[in-house]
Write a structure and sequence with these properties.
Radius of gyration: 25 Å
Low-confidence stretches: none
Order of helices and strands: HHHHHHH
Shape: elongated
Helix content: 55-70%
Structural class: mainly alpha
Largest sheet: none
Number of strands: 0
Number of helices: 7
């Protein structure tokens, strides 16, 4: 009986072991709460699982090309730590899927936040008088002034939410 590559290659997070670690951590937290003590620290294994899930998710095609991927990963891990108490092993025995969803939505929120920042920067450039900024160019750089001005104006128009975007019509 020949095994396929997928069967031979272990998953980067063992879901059964991860579930066991989450159950143990939950029990420790409940005991600490009953005794009115400080909650125990998250184990290294659970932290490693969060990091592995976030890193692997960041390599998906819809997340890989962002320059702020490290921020996305950090946000994902932070959200996992923040909401890990909400994971209930009685309702689900799949912590991998639960935390992957948390990280996924953390990534989406970071992308939206960065997009808003880019829009603000573009509007600041537009409102600060890019022509005046480009007037300082002299000599050989002056020939690129009009090209640069057109580029800035085009990008500001594209990022302006009030401005309707032109959509390409499909050819039949």
């Amino acid at each position: 009986m020949e095994k396929t590559k997928a069967k031979l290659k272990p998953h980067y997070v063992d879901n059964k072991k991860f579930l066991q670690a989450m159950v143990e951590h939950r029990l420790k937290c409940q005991k600490a709460e009953d005794k009115k003590r400080k909650k125990p620290e998250v184990t290294n294994y659970i932290g490693e699982c969060f990091l592995k899930i976030a890193n692997h998710l960041s390599y998906r095609p819809n997340f890989i090309n962002y320059t702020y991927r490290d921020d996305m990963i950090s946000d994902g891990i932070e959200n996992c730590l923040q909401y890990m108490r909400n994971f209930n092993p009685e309702k689900s025995n799949n912590p991998f899927a639960y935390f992957t969803q948390i990280i996924y939505y953390a990534f989406i929120r970071r992308i939206q936040k960065e997009k808003k920042q880019q829009d603000v920067k573009a509007k600041l450039i537009a409102n600060s008088g890019s022509e005046m900024m480009l007037d300082t160019l002299v000599g050989d750089d002056a020939q690129y002034k009009s090209q640069m001005l057109e580029f800035l104006q085009k990008n500001v128009k594209e990022s302006d939410p009030a401005e309707p975007k032109k959509t390409k019509k499909k050819k039949k």
